[in-house]
Amino acid sequence: QVQLVESGGGLVQAGGSLRLSCVASIRTFSSYAMGWFRQAPGKEREFVASIGWSTYYTDSVKGRFTISRDNAKNTVYLQMNSLKPEDTAVYYCAAGPWSSGTYDRNGRTYDYWGQGTQVTVSS
User: Are 82 and 15 in contact (CB under 8 A)?
Assistant: First the structure.
């Protein structure tokens, strides 16, 4: 059974940093694209970043967030710097086909999802 487990969320002041981790119990982890999505209260789920053939970011986090992966550890990371109150949300990692990393910005083609980790940025 595939599981994705996120960690690293918390409360941080504006301008601060957090590093999210997502450990996947997938035998062939390196063959999956990985994505990070977020959902704020009352809002729809939003694409944040993905890593597949390349790395991709939503415009609002470019230059502040960095997605990376360590295939030896079955882990994908999201380094978040210069955090803003509008980054407050539950952050989810997802695993999907390699094409998902490049083309999917709504999460519909991702196969597996984590339970989410809360990120709260205070002003």
Answer: yes
Burial call 96-113: b when 16+ CB within 10 Å, e when fewer: bbeebbeebeebeebebb
* Joined tokens for residue 2: 């595939």
- Rounded distance between C-alpha atoms, residue 121 and residue 3, angstroms: 27
Which of these, 1, 2, 8, lies nearest to 76 by C-alpha position?
8
Q: Is 18 exposed, middle or buried (0-12, 13-18, 19+ CB in 10 A)?
A: buried
- The answer to whether 88 and 40 are in contact (CB under 8 A) is yes
Residues 56/72, Cβ–Cβ less than 8 Å: no
Per residue in 21-75, pLDDT tens? 999 999 999 999 999 999 999 999 999 999 998 999 999 999 999 999 999 999 9
In this structure, the number of other CB atoms found within 10 A of the CB of residue 71 comes to: 12
Q: Specify the 3-state DSSP secondary structure of 41.
A: coil
106: left (phi over 0), alpha (psi -120 to 50) or beta: alpha
d(CA 105, CA 58): 9
